[in-house]
Amino acid sequence: MIERGKKIFLLTNNNQTSREELLMKCKNFDFKLGIDEMLTSSHLTANYLKKIGFDKKAYVIGSKQLGKELENIGIKHIGIGPDVMTASMGEYVKNHFQLDDEVGAVIVALDAHFSVPKLLKAMNYLRRPEVLFIATNVDAKVEFPTLIFPDAGEIFFVAFRV
């Protein structure tokens, strides 16, 4: 196809894979593609925010690769990694729950550390009408042989009902 003058892109909605990782996989299969032909949901999300001039902080339910893409274009973010409820719900809300006034977007993606505190924060950020809501993909779940794990679409559905 390249010989015929056609552009080829590799696209994935997997926010846990970086463009650099995809490029290495392509090289291993002897595909002659460059980094600009690697399109991930994380990269596209970051570039969308850049395109609209987003200048606030993002609350991210997602992977470190998604955070890295945001950092690459200068967008501050919070939320990546574990957020564990260390007490009862009432005690957690009273003593530990805190929202950041600088958050202007909630981004949801597959997150190995998904938890009730993360969902609680996302839903409360989204009560603010000015906060953008972005899902990197609409997959409801990831299925493994012995379990099902919620993906961005399911998180989006729950949080969007606010």
* Spans of at least 5 consecutive residues with low confidence: none
User: What's the helix-strand series?
Assistant: EHEHEHEHEHEEEH
- Structural class, from secondary structure content? alpha/beta
Overall shape: it is globular
Tally of separate helices: 6
Gyration radius from CA atoms, angstroms? 18 Å
Strand content: 15-25%
Helix content: 25-40%
The strand order across the widest sheet is: 4-3-5-6
The average pLDDT score comes to 86
Question: Care to count the β-strands?
Answer: 8
Distance between the termini: 47 Å
Largest sheet: 4 strands, parallel
Task: Produce a short descriptive summary.
This protein has 162 residues and is α/β, with parallel strands linked by helices.
Describe the protein.
The longest helix has 11 residues, at 41-51. The protein has a 4-stranded parallel beta sheet, with helices on both faces. With 162 residues, it is α/β, with parallel strands linked by helices. The chain has helices spanning 19-28, 41-51, 64-72, 89-95, 116-125, 152-160, and strands at 10-12, 38-40, 57-61, 77-78, 103-108, 132-135, 141-143, 148-150. α2 (41-51) runs parallel beside α3 (64-72). The model has no long low-confidence stretch (mean pLDDT 86). It contains 6 helices and 8 strands; from the N terminus they run βαβαβαβαβαβββα.
